[in-house]
Amino acid sequence: MPHPSLTLLLVGAYFIFLLATLLLRSRTISGPWLFLLRSFFPNWRFYHRVGHLRLLFVRFAADDAQWQPWQDMTPRATRHPLQLFHNPDINLALANQNLVEHLTTDILDMDEDQNVREFVTYQMVMRLARHLLEAQAEKHAITHYQFQIRLVPPFEKATEETALLTSPSLRWASVC
Fold first, then answer.
1. What does the alpha-carbon distance between residue 92 and residue 132 come to, in Å, rounded to a whole number?
2. For a FRET experiment, which of 96, 120, 130, 136 has its CA 20 to 30 Å from that of 165?
3. What 3-state DSSP class applies to 147?
């Protein structure tokens, strides 16, 4: 067992390290391989301050070429006591929301000369939007679809004016 003064010294060093990391601004770690691994780690930015909600909306056009209204794809989850132990549906919804958070961060951090369609997160959200609409594809003959990322200020409703990104019309038949 370490000597009590050594333990005190280690605890003190730990708190000094924590204080230094809080006071010093750290740079973002980036790299091509680290970027591919970030899908394994949640986006924890929602803990540091209250901000805009980042919501995914989708819509589709059927054979009659009439666009349906935008649908919020981040509905409130229903709760059940057993979800404390086994919760795959809400875990999937959180992973989907995490993807939307990452795309929003990429959009807000991108340079002017970059194209958002080249981001991996854009491609993943495009596939996610298609996947979320597949249940409705059985009822409707979907020909095109779109997705939209909205930044909604606290205590306000999501409207078209809060859209950060609207995808172009995407063909349903195209392979994602």
1. 12
2. 136
3. strand
